[in-house]
């Protein structure tokens, strides 16, 4: 039935534990979200990232996660001939932890990046979270100016880099850019469809006529415009979730990368066009009925990477999705852990390091359910010499993280 298909009941136990991971990295001194409610959606009124909120994400678990992602961007910058300027554009930065850790890498590699004009651009809809991000990244409470057409907030990071906030990717200036979306696409709204004897039907939300104030899932009595537009003729599944907003965003990223160069790294819960009913809600680190108290829980659906790939419309090359544990291993997390363990004096820090490594890498925790997916301009994966000299044997610079790490 539609109800059965559209509830969170058949989500695997692995995914149920998704945001209930306890003991994240210590948050001492980090600003907490403002609990005052405002009228709108979940992110604009709650935005509960971190241990005290509704979910804990990988960057919140260990700074090593952001470090390795920072290294991925520096590696792509070097592989593309060290352009004179780049923008780091993060979609949905949460508390700003990931950009904070990436900025630490950029700062540590200051001598390498000294001649490069770096700027940070955050796309964030939540006023509350943008305040938290500003405090985390600039150390200041910044004045927001909603009237400003270019960016609604501006500042300078603690490491001296210009930083800007926008509500929409289209407001971010064009130019060679590194895009980052970690646990962003899964937060965007989806359409749900169920195959029936009469053909595909959209799953809609209705008010239960028998119980006051209760919402329920129903099947549309006939085909809807979304059903006509979003179901692929070759679809074999019986239940499908489609996120058109993700499709539009990917098209925008692909168009920008094709024109200006750079790379996009997307990390999220997801599948390659195989899963069916993944829509679920989380509140206070527990699974929460998606229809109960709308706007108070974090609603999420797995990202369909096959759909994202399709929506690039061949404008860029794509890599992945590959599992988080593979990506981090390829990025050298084991080596980094060894160095950190050797440099730490006390057993508490060592235990903390091992614990956070296990959270990120264990296939039963975050290692297998998160995926990494990249968009790159086609020329990045085409041999530069081969065009002019087909016999050339010069190796193509590999894209870090998506192939095995070879230590010389
Ligand atoms: C699950 S949080 C992820 C936070 C962060 N990337 C991390 O991994 O810790 C989702 C983020 O996306 C933002 N967000 C949600 N919908 C958005 C939209 N349509 N446009 C821009 N940001 C959005 C939220 O406010 C929040 O910062």
TrEMBL record:
Keywords linked to the UniProt accession: Methyltransferase, Mitochondrion, Transferase, Transit peptide
Compositionally biased region (Polar residues): 1-11
Region ranges (Disordered): 1-51
Principal subcellular localisation of the protein: mitochondrion
Similarity annotation: Belongs to the NDUFAF7 family.
GO biological process: methylation; mitochondrial respiratory chain complex I assembly
Cell compartment(s), UniProt: Mitochondrion
Pfam family, one: Methyltransf_28
Known catalytic reactions: L-arginyl-[protein] + 2 S-adenosyl-L-methionine = N(omega),N(omega)'-dimethyl-L-arginyl-[protein] + 2 S-adenosyl-L-homocysteine + 2 H(+)
Species lineage: Eukaryota, Metazoa, Chordata, Craniata, Vertebrata
UniProt name for this protein: Protein arginine methyltransferase NDUFAF7
Compositional bias of kind Low complexity: 12-26
Species this chain originates from: Dromaius novaehollandiae (Emu)
GO annotations of cellular component type: mitochondrion
GO MF assignments: protein-arginine omega-N symmetric methyltransferase activity
EC numbers, comma separated: 2.1.1.320
Function noted in UniProt: Arginine methyltransferase involved in the assembly or stability of mitochondrial NADH:ubiquinone oxidoreductase complex (complex I). Acts by mediating symmetric dimethylation of 'Arg-118' of NDUFS2 after it assembles into the complex I, stabilizing the early intermediate complex.
InterPro entries: NDUFAF7, NDUFAF7_sf, SAM-dependent_MTases_sf
């Amino acid at each position: 039935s539609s109800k059965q298909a559209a509830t969170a009941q058949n989500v695997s136990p692995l995914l149920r534990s998704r945001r209930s991971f306890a003991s994240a990295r210590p948050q001492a001194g980090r600003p907490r979200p403002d609990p005052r409610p405002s009228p709108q959606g979940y992110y604009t009124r709650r935005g509960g990232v971190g241990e005290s909120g509704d979910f804990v994400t990988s960057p919140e678990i260990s700074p090593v996660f952001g470090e390795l992602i920072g290294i991925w961007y520096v590696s792509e910058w070097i592989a593309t001939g060290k352009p004179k300027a780049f923008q780091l554009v993060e979609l949905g930065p949460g508390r700003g932890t990931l950009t904070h850790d990436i900025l630490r890498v950029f700062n540590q590699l200051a001598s390498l990046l000294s001649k490069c004009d770096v700027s940070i651009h955050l796309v964030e809809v939540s006023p509350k979270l943008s305040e938290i991000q500003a405090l985390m990244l600039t150390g200041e409470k910044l004045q927001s100016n909603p009237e400003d057409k270019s960016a609604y907030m501006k500042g300078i990071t603690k490491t001296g880099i210009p930083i800007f906030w926008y509500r929409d990717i289209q407001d971010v200036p064009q130019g060679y850019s590194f895009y980052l979306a970690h646990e962003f696409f899964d937060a965007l709204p989806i359409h749900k469809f169920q195959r029936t004897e009469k053909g595909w039907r959209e799953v809609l939300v209705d008010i239960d006529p028998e119980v006051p104030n209760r919402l329920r899932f129903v099947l549309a009595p006939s085909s809807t415009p979304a059903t006509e537009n979003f179901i692929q003729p070759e679809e074999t599944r019986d239940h499908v979730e489609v996120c058109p907003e993700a499709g539009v965003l990917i098209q925008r990223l692909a168009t920008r990368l094709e024109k200006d160069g750079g790379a996009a790294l997307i990390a999220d819960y997801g599948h390659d066009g195989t899963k069916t009913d993944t829509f679920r809600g989380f509140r206070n680190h527990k699974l929460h009925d998606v229809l109960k108290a709308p706007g108070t829980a974090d609603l999420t659906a797995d990202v369909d990477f096959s759909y994202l790939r399709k929506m690039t419309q061949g404008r860029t090359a794509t890599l992945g999705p590959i599992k988080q544990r593979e990506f981090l291993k390829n990025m050298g997390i084991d080596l980094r852990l060894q160095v950190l363990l050797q440099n730490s004096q006390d057993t508490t820090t060592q235990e903390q390091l091992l614990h956070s490594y296990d959270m990120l890498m264990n296939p039963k925790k975050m290692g297998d359910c998160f995926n990494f997916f990249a968009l790159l301009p086609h020329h990045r994966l085409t041999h530069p010499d081969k065009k002019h000299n087909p016999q050339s044997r010069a190796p193509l610079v590999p894209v870090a993280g998506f192939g095995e790490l070879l230590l010389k």
